[in-house]
Amino acid sequence: MASLRVLDDGALWALLREDAPYGDLTSRVLELGAVSARMTFAARDAMTLCGAEEAARLLELTGATVRIDAASGTARAPGEPILEAEGPAEALLLGWKVAQTLVEWASGVATRAAALVAAARDGHPAALVACTRKAVPGTRALSAKAVLAGGASLHRTGLSDTVLLFPEHRAVGGTQGGVEEALARQIATLRHACPERRVVVEVATVAEALAAARHGADVLQLEKFTPAQVADVGARLGPAPAPCLAAAGGIHAGNAAAYARAGARVLVTSAPYTAPPVDVQVTLVPAPTSSPRANGSAGS
Predict the structure, then answer these.
(1) Which of 18, 51, 216, 252 is the most buried (most CB within 10 A)?
(2) What is the rounded CA–CA span in Å between residue 215 and residue 222?
(3) How many domains does the chain have?
(4) For 58-88, how does the pLDDT look when each residue is reduced to its tens digit (9 = 90+)?
(5) For residue 209, what are the contacts with CB-CB under 8 A and spacing of at least 6?
(6) Number of CB atoms found within 10 A of residue 15's CB
(7) Are residues 219 and 266 located together in one domain of the fold?
(8) 69/92 same-domain check
(9) Could you list the residue ranges that cross the membrane (predicted)?
(10) Both 74 and 29 in a single domain?
């Protein structure tokens, strides 16, 4: 799944137009359109790769022939190849920086997601990392691909696909009869209207968590709880069947294991989206006249 291309040709053309609306002035003046060249991408540091398929297709759109050496989701050690492209030097130079930046950014997100997953599983082998929809606006499709490439899951892809009852819903929905009665009423309404969905309730205190559990919440999203508070909720709920505990707010690789050990089976986080890009080494050289052009497909 992580190796499927999520940006269509229209989106990739938009990236190229943004960077070179009238082509590459330097390459055009130097008349490099008739010069055959070869460009390679390789990992400079250890990384979890993402975006190779999009970068390859972008380079194909400029007129290059591309071979992908590693799919998104693949771990790359320093120096290991990512892709190779061959074609007119002007075409390769036109797509170079856009393709490189795309891979570096997406791989940074994937690499941080992979580190979070590894840390969570150190705490408990069944722990899941679920990334929120709070990606940088305009990057959600590639952000989702990146966290999946890193082994994480998606918390929710948008407001339309899951039921998540926030305190804000309770605040504006009316508290006639008291806060807990309003909570019970909203959970019951959601369970009746959306029987095929799990009802997730975000809570800010242990008391709210216990109240939501009493009234049928399937998942308790424990907002900014400490690991000790997560463990306290789990102890108070007792043995199964009990709601799944999801820790949210401030989750990162440094504390993921502690939350998983405390009983949170889902760690809800946006941390991968702010990861720094990883470094991709790009080499551009004249193509040997006797060698065949690169072959393969950029995927779909």
Answers:
(1) 51
(2) 16
(3) 2
(4) 999 999 999 999 999 999 999 999 999 999 9
(5) 203, 220, 222, 233
(6) 18
(7) yes
(8) yes
(9) none
(10) yes
Q: Are residues 174 and 90 in the same domain?
A: no
Domain check: are 218 and 253 in the same one? yes
Going 166 to 169 to 171 to 174, the CA torsion angle's sign is negative
What CATH number has the domain bearing residue 167?
3.20.20.70
Two tokens, residue 69: 């050496």
What are residue 232's phi and psi, to 5 degrees?
-65, -45
Side-chain-side CA neighbours of 229 within 13 Å: the count stands at 18
CATH number of the domain where residue 104 is located: 3.90.1170.20
Identify the domain containing residue 30 by its residue range.
Answer: 9-113+276-286
Q: Which residues lie closer than 8 Å to 171 by C-beta, 6 or more apart?
A: none
Give CA 102 to chain center in angstroms: 13
What pLDDT score does 292 carry?
Answer: 45
Neighbouring CB atoms inside 10 A of 223's CB total 19
Residues 196-225 have a mean pLDDT of 96
Q: Read off the pTM.
A: 0.91
Beta pairing, strands 153-154 & 163-165: unpaired
